Amino acid sequence: MRSGTVAVIGRANAGKSTLINVMVGEKIAIVSPKPQTTRDRILGILTREEHQIVFVDTPGIYRQRNELTDRMMHQTENTSKEADVILFVHDGHAGVKDEDVALMKKYASVGIPMLIAYTKTDIMPKENIPRDAKILYEAGIETDVIPVSARKGRNIRLLEQELVKLLPEQDKLFPDDIVSDRSERFMISELMREKILLKYDKEIPHGVAIVVNKFEKLDNGTYDIDLDIVCEKRNHKAILIGKQGRALKETASFARQDMEKFLGAKVFLTVYVKVREDWRDRATLLKEFGYDDEE
Ligand SMILES: Nc1nc2c(ncn2[C@@H]2O[C@H](COP(=O)(O)OP(=O)(O)OP(=O)(O)O)[C@@H](O)[C@H]2O)c(=O)[nH]1
Ligand SMILES: [Mg+2]
After folding, report:
1. Where are the domains positioned within the chain?
2. How far is C-alpha 104 from the geometric centre of its chain's CA atoms?
3. Whole-angstrom Cα distance, residue 274 to residue 226?
4. Looking at domain 184-288, which CATH architecture does it have?
């Protein structure tokens, strides 16, 4: 059978995590309209009788510089060198800029087979697809470009077939029933972060880390979860909590509903907001919050 790893690379907010969730058929990574939603490398595993694709979701390429984003970019770089295939995800509805061409060329020259998924075709004029394909071709990009829409499920199977053709002949890397390498505890903290990304202006979520202090399944099947939302500034804490705690209550309730869906059980959720100034630039705190440099 064919099986192997596919590094999913692209600019922040291109639609990488959404595409992986749709291809795997389960939510393995959180999604939001803000850049830098994904902070870690996350595996999403698609197993069929005839093949297995191990998608490696990566933090999107983005300018902002701090110790956290440096680590994120480091992970993306390493992932792109170790995979069997690179799937470069491009946000089609944003057009094609010189920087896009430069990035595509960079990854095409790594020496690993590559495909370009030109996504979000559901929110752009159809005629842009051949126009942009021509721009890419004329700019010297020889990689195959597959127009897709994760939201509408367009060309998803075609993309799967094309990826499989590029994978090596080998046994499965993971057992059939595993869809991700991440724990329930990790997903819980990510779901909390996703709701903050959706609810607040990006300055706040970019400075937020989630620390799960307690994750316990009780005898009656319900979960007792206790977590901290760590933010960078006192005024962010005030905004997160809101008047009489209303904002926090709302965000927590929104997160809890998703956690219950994910765990298939009732959840008791306790949330605190804490301040740790400049944690994104402090190595010990990054480690404490789970943003470890594995290499
Ligand atoms: N209309 C439309 N929107 C999409 C599609 N795919 C993703 N999106 C939206 O694009 C935004 C970004 O999606 P993500 O999947 O979080 O993007 P990402 O590339 O993983 O972003 P980072 O993790 O920040 O690098 C979200 O608001 C998605 O709902 C698509 O096919 N069509
Ligand atoms: Mg992502």
Report:
1. 2-165, 184-288
2. 19
3. 13
4. 2-Layer Sandwich (3.30)
Q: What is the pLDDT of residues 164-220, one digit of tens each?
A: 999 999 999 999 999 999 999 999 999 999 999 999 988 899 999 999 999 999 999
Q: Ligand 1 centroid vs 118 CA: distance in angstroms?
A: 12
Residue 97: pLDDT band (50, 70, 90) is very high
Give pLDDT, residue 294: 57
Q: Do domains 2-165 and 184-288 have the same CATH topology?
A: no
Mutate to test the pocket of ligand 1, among 8, 9, 11, 13 (most ligand atoms within 8 A of CB): 13
Q: For residue 92, which ligand has an atom nearest its CA?
A: 1
Is residue 37 within 6 Å of ligand 1 at its C-beta?
A: yes
Strands in the chain per DSSP E: 2-10, 42-47, 51-57, 85-91, 114-119, 145-147, 209-217, 223-231, 267-275
52 lines ligand 1 (CB under 6 A): no
* Ligand 1 nearest atom to the CA of residue 12, by list position: 25
Q: Which two three-digit tokens encode residue 117?
A: 């998924």
pLDDT tens-digit series, residues 10-46: 999 999 999 999 999 999 999 999 999 999 999 999 9
CATH class of domain segment(s) 2-165? alpha beta
Calpha distance 48→174 (Å, rounded): 12
Per-residue pLDDT at 272 exceeds 70? yes
pTM of the predicted structure, to 2 decimals: 0.96
Cα 274 to Cα 192, 206, 271, distances in angstroms? 15, 15, 10
